[in-house]
Amino acid sequence: MLMAGLPELILLSSVMGLAILLSLPIVLAKSIASRTISLLNAVAIGILVFLLADVFSDAAGIIYSNSNSPYLANPGYAAAFILGVVACFLILFFSEHRSQGSTLSPRAMALLVAAAIGFQNLTEGLVFGATWAVGITGLATVIFLGFFLQNVTEGFPIAAPLIGKNDRAVGVLVLLFLVGGLPTVLGSVVGFYYNSALLDVTFDALAIGAILYCILPMLRAAFRPAETPAASYLKQRLTYVGILLGFVIGFLVNAV
Q1: Is 142 domain-assigned?
Q2: Does 1 map to a domain?
Q3: How many domains does the chain divide into?
Q4: If you ran DSSP here, which 8-state letter would residue 228 be given?
Q5: 214, part of any domain
Q6: Which of 57, 68, 91, 157 is most buried, by the most CB atoms less than 10 A from its CB?
Q7: 185, 14 Cβ separation under 8 angstroms
Q8: For the segment 58-112, what is each residue's pLDDT rounded down to a tens digit?
């Protein structure tokens, strides 16, 4: 990968961000059995759980960056992280529950997941842009390939609330995928001109707060009883397997 200027950075970060669209043909399949829907939803949860751990590991590397005492957190970074997670979670909570008994529609839930992934991809873009600006070719190549492959899997959590629903239109999914993927480009441009550990920690915190809030209702739906005891048992088994599978997929893609 040849290092160059801003136009090349925008091109490569666009390829990274838009890789999320590669999952579109699978989630748009015309006929999906209920078992497959349960499994795909569980895989989506597993991917989000991995993203949660992955984003936290990035933030922890900054928060605990004291070389003299690696177990002592930087107070400023720690405060920014905690405030970011709590603020994002509470804003989403009160936005959803502004009227008693309100629940998110499938589209609203998908948008929320897309926004959470968008925050995470924004931070990835910051890292890629900063590396590109420094001119470290080998590291930039590894980051590009890793983020590209990871973004391919991120379409599944976004589409999960809409799978099996009537409003699973192509245009809606494309827009949601763009919400999740395009922040990669924005982050890359910002990171190219300005690199700040505090900025990285803040966006990591927002991503974690949003992902946490997304996972809870998805888990509630995944473990909701089915029509019969036998169907409920099968759905539960598929959920366990799917969450583990999603986590493993996220890990393997990130490790490539």
Answers
A1: yes
A2: no
A3: 1
A4: S
A5: yes
A6: 157
A7: yes
A8: 889 889 887 667 678 888 999 999 999 999 898 888 876 665 555 677 888 888 8
